[in-house]
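Changelog note: in this version the structure field was regenerated for every chain. One regenerated record is shown below for reference.
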Amino acid sequence: MLLPDPCDSSLILSLPDDVFTMVSRFLLPRDICNLSLCCKSLYALASSENVWLTQCDMMSMVPHNDLVEWREGVSSYKALCRFLLNVQPLLGIWVHQNPELGNLVYVMPGFVSLVGCRIIPQELGPLGIQDGPILWASVFEVIGDFDGSATFFLHGRKDGIDYVCPGSVKSIDKSCNVLLLEVEPGEQEYDSTLLQGKSCVNSSNSEFSRLQGVVGNSEAMVPFSKLAFSDRRKLLEVTTSQVRQEVPNIAIGPLFPRLRDDYNNFQKDLVLLKERRAFLSQMHKLGNGNIQIDNKENSQGGVGSMQLELDDIRKSLDCSRIDHTQCIKSKSLGGYFWGGFKQILGRSNHAISKKHTSSYEIRHARLDDFLRSNDTIRLTLKASNVILSSYRAWPNMHDSWFALYKMPLRVPTEGQVYAGLWGGTFGWPPGKPSEEKPGKALFFLLLSYEEIQGQQFLIATKILEGTHYVLHPNGSAMFIVNMNEPSSEPFPWETDTDSFSMNIEHAFMGEGIANGYGFRYPGSKSGSLFVFKNGILAFNWKESRNVLTLQRLNLQELLKKGERIPSLPPMNNFAYLTKSYSNVYTGFPGASTSSPRFA
């Protein structure tokens, strides 16, 4: 009698379901998928809900109880795992250089979704950081569909009306460090209508001819990134204005549930979140966020509903030029650039002579070529890995990209115990507004370690400043501490009630930010970092005796207790490229009007 092959699938099939579920913890999702391709029996075993629930659990994106709630919104735990794997790299802190007070977007789980929340520069309330509501505004959502695919919604508010701009998630690199807002060719779906402005219109061309056109243009596709900055900006403006949808009452509800400690409100939030997500998913399916482009000349000169919409797009793009050249109407979207743009883009139906080809045309693709190469365009979210240089843990950013940049959120380890996100204010005792200054500017700092010439330094990078007018550039190092050089300086402040000065655990020598050679080149002055036994950090400037007190933050918990305020218009809401040194949210309650003094 032959013994069974050690690699026989019957050995795996003989395992009880709970045992195989435990074994699957040592497998990656792709390993389980490959296993399911072996035979029907292994397919059934690998499709077990418990197996895929275990995979979701191992990702540690959301608590187990939340996974059970999320399961109601998808077809299976396998579909849920597909969504989580896809969007996991988006979690964390994203920043931009402008405005200089701080542009901090925190991406966190919602309900079968991820939500991008912008923390508003603000003052510390009388309840302190942990108990006082943090002000925030929504930026975007990535929602998981029934099959686990991801859809994108850009948020924004204009003229007192809240909008969502549906789009697609183009690609998410596992090691992404840049989040880009772009316009790309839309995926044509022939059994559904395409979103045209605020209504849906049917194509007048046959399915075969449209498919033929898409295939024929695929080789001449012009990347969005190759367009000039002004063309990319206006194309994004026109696309968001055309695909945006007013947020109805059913979709105004919460974007994520409150803390589970408040059980009744948590359950109410779940009901609202399920209704809201179902509505947004249906909205996306009906329109897909696509704008149809008719690139064929209309010889009859008839103007239908589509042509009227295209005229609006044409006028918006044509009239936005700085030289304010007169707008000239044309018969197709591909030809709307005659007039003010003809010196830059040229006439597409005439060859451009080499002697008139400018350096602009060599460096950048032409917008009419981009539009002619596609039948539809749509808004997209693209997460890429880009080689970026950095200085003192702050990335050097491109001022012409509509992008957010990821800041690594280090997990504290044995040799880097202070790494992570910290928040606090100037003054002592920590977190307590005084009678002279009832509102203190709230600072968010990202603490990271860097080794320089064999010495370990702790760098406190400012990512949010709650002052009314910024004193130092966004991304500045508020202090740099040599962790190999203990400080013998005494802590200058004494308290009558809580004797913080007597509970100092460690002290290190360092330098704190100070006024220097203009705004862009701050100086530094000596000081010390004090570590208290209760977890508080305090950096003291030796000469001025100013003290910045910090405590470790859990941003997700703070947002769940926070207060949502209106967003900026869609494009500025994603990437605020305009140089600004003041608080663009000063019109909202809680916005700061104070400025600390530096040495």
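Spot check on this record: The two ends are 89 Å apart (CA to CA). The CA atoms of residues 227 and 533 lie 55 Å apart.
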